[in-house]
Amino acid sequence: MKQNNPLTEVQYNWLDNKKNMFYVSTRLEPGDQIMIYGIYNHITSENKRPNGCGSCLRSTLNVVKQAYEKYKQTL
Q: Is the pTM of this model over 0.70?
């Protein structure tokens, strides 16, 4: 999955507050899922939507996690 756009500072700060979701398996709030997919769509220029598929969410989180860690290295 190609990452076309970097995270914004606001996206990074939101992810930093919720970073446990990358490392611990937890149930996400519906608003969190919407935000995750919004961030994913921003960085990949896709139009992926939440659909209830657990493995789809996990792969989406992995792409967002990579962008989060890449942004973190620039700080």
A: yes
